[in-house]
Amino acid sequence: MVNYYVRRTARVFVTIFLVASLTFGLVRLLPGGPFTLLRAQLLRQGVPADEVDARIANLQNIRPDEPLWQQYIDYMAALFQGNLGESISLGEPVVTVLAKAAPWTIFVVLVSTVLVFVIGIFMGSLQAYWEGSRFDQLVTGVSISLMSLPFYVVAVIALYVFAYQFGWLPTAGTVSNSVERSLGVPFLVSALKHSILPIVSYTLGAAGGQALAMRGNSIQVLGNDYVQVARLRGLSDRRIATRYVARNAILPMYTGFLLLLGFRLGGTVILEQIFSYTGLGYYMITALKANDYPLMMGTFLVITVALVIGVFIADLTYSRIDPRISAGESDEAY
Amino acid sequence: MSDPTDDYRDMISRRHFVTLTGASGAAALAGCTGDGGGDGGDGGSSDGGDGGSSDGGDGTQVTDATLVGATNNGVPSNLHVNPMATQNYDWIAGNHIFERFAAYNFSTQEFELAGLSDWSFDGTTVTLTLRDDLAWDTGDDVTAGDVITQFKLMKKTGATLWDYVESVEQGEDDKTVVLNLSRPTNPEIIKHTLANGDLRIHGYQPVYNEFLDKEASAVQQFKWEEDVHGNGPFGLESKSDQGWTLTRNESFYDADNITFSTYELLSRTDNTALQQGLLGGELDVVTSLFTPPTIVANFPDRVEEVQLPAKWGYGALFNHDDEDFGKRKVRQAVAHVINRQQVADNAGPRTKDPAPKVTGIPPADQETWLGDAFDGFEGYGPNASNTEKAASLLREAGYSKSDGTWQDGDGNALGGSYITPAGWTDWTTATNTVVDQLNSFGFDFEINSLPQGDYFGAYIESNFTMGAFYWLPGGARSSFPYFPLRWQMKIPDISGGHNFAEGEHTVPAMDGSGEMTLNPLEEITSVATTQDQAAVEETVKRVAWHHNQNIPVLGLVGKLDQSWLTDAEWDVAGADDPARGVKWPSHWLPKQGKLGVQE
Questions:
Q1: Separation in Å, CA of A164 to nearest CA in chain B
Q2: B522-560 pLDDT, tens per residue?
Q3: Which residue, A185, B105, B514, B531, could crosslink B581 as a Cys pair with Cβ 3.0–4.6 Å?
């Protein structure tokens, strides 16, 4: 058993190492150097060419002219110490930028993913309970429609209608500019208002999918012998629904939840762009536009590490939740 | 107004009911002006000792209202207001905080002094006199010492002003700065350099003096974010991820003209967000924003568009080292084939005009500068494809047409990759039109759309055959032909990557008889030191003629900048008011008293 946890933990580090190496390589394959855009901007501002070269040389943040292997070793060594380098375009440590941005993204993704599962499980259970009813048909239809609509389409429509047309919700940002940046009621209310549209648009379609999954699981469980036995024992519908059906139907969705948390972090790149929501995804686009290697790799890493950790937690805890899975005898990862 | 859901109603009610009076009897409402104007260090102005309302003792009525604009330069918490920095200076905020020396009015076509009360030009001496009442928001005067510090740092950072200036010193008093020129220089050039919109008076000595003894990199990497002191109409109150908050600077010399307390600049990074902000009423002003006709048509009546000449626009750039497009006749053929009117119509009929003649002078200024010679310039059919002329030129250059494609003697098709910047939507349309016209004629071009960095990179490294590029340097200075004519030959924006050969060139004579040989770069450079207007005009005509014949850059369309104001809640200068002719109205009008709270 201990061996299992050790192997799982080792796998996390190997994965992160490989991801870091891969992102380093992929980012370097991007056309153009990190200063191409800056060079062009300075030249357009009328800065003489010699002066542009001098200015770029003055930016001591990184040394893109060093051999690639040297850059790689420097990067990995720094990474090992928790140093992601300094953003070329923002002139700040990447860790600082990410520390400012990550809470917003985590907040939106976490709330949205929890909502996806809560809504999905609730609707799916009801559908299974009333299988074949008009309610079931209606919710199935709505779920399929929402699933087929990409979240960014929902986001753009929601932004246009609720923010620009009706003016009920803010159009951009994380908190109103006029609200003081300290934890208090006005701050929380403002932050909540700003997050409603991103969360709703990120939740709707995914919730439909989870509802269908939950419905399928529940119907499958409902057909099991132990449910029939429970009924024969005269147990209440409520008890059967919660203790026998829901528990077993939710079980397979548990790993999905953790994985989805990680995957959905990646989706925020588009979501945050639409709502000018200054989270990780927003900075990833900023970094991409500026060929800002350190910032780009920092955001990549945070997102992939989150996914890896999600899988890791799922691996470690699944056997605890489902006693049928004996982790010690199984080498399967979830 | 700012965030409609957080503060909108609150703000409206305050706007209507809370009107603060500057000096007289404001005591009852003192403290509502935001923060007493930043430092309040000048609170000496008799306010009955409460110190809260130090509105300058001018009796101006200041309403607690917020004008909401936007910045698209990034997230303000990552930006700063050191204009000398290499990266992340937000000029949209900086231009409110720091006053400019002078401005060029596109309506009157004249210079207007701002932070200066006078400038005089005498041989190799330029004397700049600062306004007596130009002060920092601490209440201290802006002195010659501040400007000298700034100019000395600009020398370190290689600013263009120092192309003409040899030294700078204080004049007869601490409001006078003397620039000693290296040679007699045409005053227009100095004026355009000083009136450049982004050149601001920002050399606050307590902050900048320490950089005088350091390498240029020190000031270029300095982020001025805290303890910011300006001399413009607004001072920095705070900044966050969401935007800048600026408050009325009571020490500003024309503070009387500013009738509202706060100027917010929200961070909106893409055009759509800015357009929607105007559409939905979130934004009151937008400094500059390209907006296609379909969206303009949807704007409500309260949104006003101010069109200003950009002196900039879509053109085509040749690599003069290319064995085909380095030939003048091939370039002329290309010019004949392209229907400039069609390019303008497709790319933006409201904001784009075809260049009447192909030369290095902005469309609106061509007739003024070329005078009677204008008609003699080759038009290259601005609204038609002159395919016969083009075909004849290509044949003369040794090409022939086979299977619908022009080929050289070895059977290689005439064309290549036509580079264009990705994401510049109006330019993409223009490029599609141009390439379609060229290929229909028999060229063999393929569009290569590149991200901005790579796009400029390709030009800088001369790694191209032909592509889309702007044909004028842009801004007020382009109205003085010295700048654009010279620029087309050197294109510093791409380090001269188009490889236009310096030295002498022979072109047909202007009067149609024989040929003329001239060194266009040398001739136009001489304008910088010529103070005789007639000689300047003659030189401009000759060099413009050379550009018309030799085509260093092919100018196709000129563009109008679009700046946006709203008048539902704001009193805005009328459409005929020449004050709207200074870039940018959202910066210039409030301090002129021409953009204020509606009564």
A1: 5
A2: 999 999 888 888 999 999 999 999 999 999 999 999 999
A3: B105
* Alpha-carbon gap, residue B508 to B516, rounded angstroms: 6
Amino acid A120 reads G
Strands (E), B340-426: 352-354, 400-402, 405-407, 415-421
Contact A55 B223 (CB under 8 A): no
Place of tokens 């229907």: B339
**Is cis: bond before B584, omega within 30 of 0?**
yes
pTM above 0.90, yes or no: no
Q: What gap in Å lies between CA B416 and CA B438, rounded to an integer?
A: 11
A112: closest CA among A151, A147, A150, A75?
A: A151
Give the one of A39, A173, A276 whose C-beta lies nearest to B460's C-beta. A39
Q: Which ranges constitute the DSSP H helices of chain A?
A: 2-29, 36-44, 49-58, 68-80, 94-129, 134-148, 151-158, 185-222, 225-232, 237-239, 247-274, 280-289, 293-321
In angstroms, the separation between the Cα of residue B453 and the nearest Cα of chain A is 4
Residues 64-103 of A with CB under 8 A from B: 89-92, 97, 100
Which amino acid is residue B567, in one-letter code? D
Asked whether the beta carbons of residue B217 and residue A42 sit closer than 8 angstroms, the reply is: no
- The dihedral through the CA atoms of B485, B488, B493, B496 has a sign that is negative
Which uninterrupted H or E stretch holds B508?
Answer: strand B505-508
Residues in B touching A159 (Cβ below 8 Å)? 276
ipTM over 0.95: no
Instruction: State the nearest Cα–Cα gap between B516 and chain A, in angstroms.
Output: 32
Which H or E run includes B419?
strand B415-421
Cβ of A163 within 8 Å of Cβ of B280? The answer is yes
Distance (Å) of CA A146 to CA A127, A134, A141, A150, B159: 16, 18, 9, 8, 57
Q: Residues of A with CB below 8 A from B69's CB?
A: none
Q: What's the CA gap between A71 and A24, in Å, rounded?
A: 9
Sign of the Cα pseudo-torsion (B376, B381, B382, B383, in order)? positive
Interface residue A182 vs chain B (CB under 8 A): no
Q: What is the pLDDT of residues A31-59, one digit of tens each?
A: 666 667 777 777 766 666 666 766 666 55
Partner B contacted by A168 (CB < 8 A): yes
